Amino acid sequence: MSNKMWALLTLLIGAVAHAQELPSASPVPGGIAILPLVPDTEPVPVVHFADQRIMVMRHDGRWQAVVGLPLTLAPGPQMVTVRDSQGRTREYPFTVQSKEYAVQHLTLKNKRMVEPTEEDLARITREQAIIQHAFAAWTDETISSLRCLLPVHGPVSSVFGLRRFFNNEPRQPHSGIDIAAPVGAPVVAPLAGTVIQTGEYFFNGKTVFLDHGQGLVSMFNHLSRIAVENGARVSQGQKIGEVGMSGRVTGPHLHWTVSLNNSRVDPALFLPKIK
Ligand code: ZN
């Protein structure tokens, strides 16, 4: 075989061995934009969007920016800033399309969950700071695949992005998905990660945060039991807790939030098609 053919073969094998599985692209508020950058024979570039560091994955022979788009982002032109190993920067434009999310009305018997007392509000403010800090995590980590497992067996009872009203009061949109399951059902890590925070919060109940690396963070809420310690390394499919109904709920379920570059995005984009 000629040197040229060997080189080609080595390149092909290398490409197969290093291909990283991406989530589904959906460039809408609450979705993900995937932007092909430079060939992956070049050093990995450093990408920023709205002052946040952006995940970069190797796929189809290129470095690809995997950009989380906040629900509050206005549709229209946007751009990421890409810095190469020589320190040169270049902008990559992309377009955010619009998406209409459905409205959901929920009724809560516990009025305090809709109209918290002053004491509750102080607690909520304290907890928000902890939660925001966890979502802002960044760790340099090579992720081979972004294909997640469903963290609990059960039907999706509330999709991502619903514009919510609790007892007819407008509240924050649904920042994750709800999976209906009985109390005690095992909750597993959808992807390998490190436990960066656990706690029991006013709205979210018993909670675990997993840092999967490169700005990808999962949050699991309303647990009846937490099965992992802060700082623990967990593998994909490992049990991290049990389904419960702690915090603001209408029944037992798992709420799972996925945050990418500090933007809450639709977890369904990381799952094999379930709808
Ligand atoms: Zn939920």
Domain count, please report it.
2
Characterize the largest beta sheet: strand count, sense, and whether it forms a barrel: 10 strands, antiparallel
Tell me the span between the first and last alpha carbons.
48 Å
Instruction: Please identify which CATH superfamily of the largest domain we are dealing with.
Output: Glucose Permease (Domain IIA)
Low-confidence stretches: none
User: Mind telling me the C-alpha Rg?
Assistant: 20 Å
Give the number of helices: 2
Helix content: 10-25%
Oligomer: single chain
CATH architecture of the largest domain: Distorted Sandwich
Bound molecules: zinc ion
Shape: globular
Strand content is 35-45%
- SSE sequence, one letter per element: HEEEEEEEEHEEEEEEEEEEEE
The overall pLDDT average reads 92
Number of strands: 20
Account of the protein in words:
By secondary structure, this protein is mostly beta strands. It has two domains: 23-96, Immunoglobulin-like, CATH 2.60.40.1590; 103-270, Glucose Permease (Domain IIA) (Distorted Sandwich). 12% of the residues lie in helices and 40% in strands. It has two helices and 20 strands. The strands form four sheets. Strands 9, 12, 13, 14, 15, 16, 17, 18, 19 and 20 form a ten-stranded antiparallel sheet that branches. A hairpin with a 2-residue loop joins strand 4 and strand 5. It is globular and about 75 Å long. The N and C termini lie far apart (48 Å). The relative contact order is 0.17. The structure holds zinc ion (ZN). Residues 158, 174, 176, 178, 255 line the site of zinc ion (ZN).
